[in-house]
Amino acid sequence: MDFHFEIVQDYMPFFLKGMALTVGVSLAGVLIGLLLGLLIALGKMSSNQWVRLPFNIYINVFRGTPLLVQLLIIHFGIVPLFMAQSNPVVSLVIGLSLNSAAYIAEIFRAGIQSIDKGQMEAARSLGMTRVQAMKLVILPQAVKRVIPPLGNEFIVLLKESSLGSVLAAPELMYWGQAAAGQYIRVWEPYLTVALIYLVLTLSLTYLMNYIERRMKTDDLR
Amino acid sequence: MISVKHLKKSFGDNEVLKDISIDVNPQEVVVVIGPSGSGKSTFIRCLNMLESINGGHVVIDGKDLTDKKTNINEIRTNVGMVFQHFNLFPHKTILDNITLAPINVRGMNKKEAEEKAMVLLAKVGLAEKASAYPDSLSGGQKQRVAIARALAMEPKVMLFDEPTSALDPEMVGEVLEVMKQLAKDGMTMIVVTHEMGFAREVGDRVVFMDNGYIVEENEPKALFDDPKHERTKAFLSKVL
Ligand SMILES: Nc1ncnc2c1ncn2[C@@H]1O[C@H](COP(=O)(O)OP(=O)(O)OP(=O)(O)O)[C@@H](O)[C@H]1O
Ligand SMILES: [Mg+2]
């Protein structure tokens, strides 16, 4: 196999730009997903089943359908209702946010419910409201437990953001396909793109491990 | 202080409290004994609405907990609770465990709350542990902190649900000692316990519960030495 490095070289500026966008949309997706996810998790834990219902539906819909389908519906169906000129990057961020919110909600719920229920009882018996008990007692403890699965979710999202190429959002995968189309080559563009994804996800994995280790030593105090 | 009338509580089909009525006077120490599953914990948890009440009335300090208009959080600030498994907040230092509610619920300023907490810690003999975390404490120490934490809200009543049952035997004494002192200081207390020595020495009244009812209640000496009911006799013969 002859490997044409000049293709990689030619396209490197685009790959790097794509990589920046990939990191950007994933980060935006996970941050918005964190906010929405926390709200959805709290909603799903309501003692009122009618309050729980919409949150349950949300989680089931977004976890039970492919992200690709969600992106297409959002980009070609929903966003055009609100914006005259629909922008694929905006649609991609919306899609990633809404999708990750469903997974993150479940991560939060599991984290919160893993805290011994005696903690909530002790807080309430001291006169705290439910909200105070959550904020002061439950969530600070739950945060430590949700950081590892949240890291995983970020890694998953980073890879899934490659679906943005279908919307022609100029992220990493989009430029991989562009290069493949222009040169009618498979190995150079796709291997390069794969390698960049791998570097990103491995860096994230190391970062997560580092944070986890730091938290462990915090625990020993 | 506390007036319970025809209290009923079920978990699904399981009627755990069938008809409980009792009055507790200010400064009185009531000890609740009874076999496992008789509803002691459920009873004491109904007194600060950790369990919802299905029937009857619980009136604390003039306020009916079953009244929808009653602010339950306010009631709880007046009713301290000590749990079998301590339930200290592991992410907070001992001092912060104690000041958390006074600062956030009572709106006390930090300095005042910490000064008060130190007084309470000294009272339970743990002043030197103020900056430690719960994980580094023994069971007996944890429970004494839990008592101090509850006292920091200046409750009018203290509820204890088997405060020494999770402790190694050599640590039971130090916790009971703190409770004895509390009783001496005039705190109104309801204590679920298997420590019959404590019941006899500190209790003003002992209540024997079985199967969701109060079967018999009396002064400790009378109840232990001369139980009237067969079930009380049978229970006491097993535990004494
Ligand atoms: N949250 C709950 N859901 C369903 N059933 C419960 C719950 N809590 C208690 N019960 C049931 O209520 C009954 C009384 O329990 P409770 O804990 O009040 O007994 P207890 O007298 O405190 O016993 P022990 O001495 O073992 O602590 C038991 O049959 C128990 O299974
Ligand atoms: Mg019990």
From TrEMBL, chain A:
<comment type="similarity">
    <text>Belongs to the binding-protein-dependent transport system permease family. HisMQ subfamily.</text>
</comment>
<feature type="transmembrane region" description="Helical">
    <location>
        <begin position="190"/>
        <end position="211"/>
    </location>
</feature>
<dbReference type="InterPro" id="IPR000515">
    <property type="entry name" value="MetI-like"/>
</dbReference>
<dbReference type="GO" id="GO:0043190">
    <property type="term" value="C:ATP-binding cassette (ABC) transporter complex"/>
</dbReference>
<dbReference type="GO" id="GO:0006865">
    <property type="term" value="P:amino acid transport"/>
</dbReference>
<keyword id="KW-0029">Amino-acid transport</keyword>
<keyword id="KW-0812">Transmembrane</keyword>
<feature type="transmembrane region" description="Helical">
    <location>
        <begin position="20"/>
        <end position="43"/>
    </location>
</feature>
<dbReference type="Pfam" id="PF00528">
    <property type="entry name" value="BPD_transp_1"/>
</dbReference>
<dbReference type="GO" id="GO:0022857">
    <property type="term" value="F:transmembrane transporter activity"/>
</dbReference>
<keyword id="KW-1133">Transmembrane helix</keyword>
<feature type="transmembrane region" description="Helical">
    <location>
        <begin position="64"/>
        <end position="83"/>
    </location>
</feature>
<keyword id="KW-1003">Cell membrane</keyword>
<dbReference type="InterPro" id="IPR043429">
    <property type="entry name" value="ArtM/GltK/GlnP/TcyL/YhdX-like"/>
</dbReference>
<feature type="domain" description="ABC transmembrane type-1">
    <location>
        <begin position="19"/>
        <end position="208"/>
    </location>
</feature>
<keyword id="KW-0813">Transport</keyword>
<keyword id="KW-0472">Membrane</keyword>
<dbReference type="InterPro" id="IPR010065">
    <property type="entry name" value="AA_ABC_transptr_permease_3TM"/>
</dbReference>
<protein>
    <submittedName>
        <fullName>Amino acid ABC transporter permease</fullName>
    </submittedName>
</protein>
<dbReference type="InterPro" id="IPR035906">
    <property type="entry name" value="MetI-like_sf"/>
</dbReference>
Automatic annotation (TrEMBL), chain B:
<dbReference type="InterPro" id="IPR027417">
    <property type="entry name" value="P-loop_NTPase"/>
</dbReference>
<dbReference type="InterPro" id="IPR003439">
    <property type="entry name" value="ABC_transporter-like_ATP-bd"/>
</dbReference>
<dbReference type="GO" id="GO:0016887">
    <property type="term" value="F:ATP hydrolysis activity"/>
</dbReference>
<dbReference type="InterPro" id="IPR003593">
    <property type="entry name" value="AAA+_ATPase"/>
</dbReference>
<keyword id="KW-0813">Transport</keyword>
<dbReference type="InterPro" id="IPR030679">
    <property type="entry name" value="ABC_ATPase_HisP-typ"/>
</dbReference>
<dbReference type="GO" id="GO:0015424">
    <property type="term" value="F:ABC-type amino acid transporter activity"/>
</dbReference>
<dbReference type="GO" id="GO:0005524">
    <property type="term" value="F:ATP binding"/>
</dbReference>
<dbReference type="Pfam" id="PF00005">
    <property type="entry name" value="ABC_tran"/>
</dbReference>
<dbReference type="InterPro" id="IPR017871">
    <property type="entry name" value="ABC_transporter-like_CS"/>
</dbReference>
<dbReference type="InterPro" id="IPR050086">
    <property type="entry name" value="MetN_ABC_transporter-like"/>
</dbReference>
<protein>
    <submittedName>
        <fullName>Peptide ABC transporter ATP-binding protein</fullName>
    </submittedName>
</protein>
<keyword id="KW-0067">ATP-binding</keyword>
<feature type="domain" description="ABC transporter">
    <location>
        <begin position="2"/>
        <end position="236"/>
    </location>
</feature>
<keyword id="KW-0547">Nucleotide-binding</keyword>
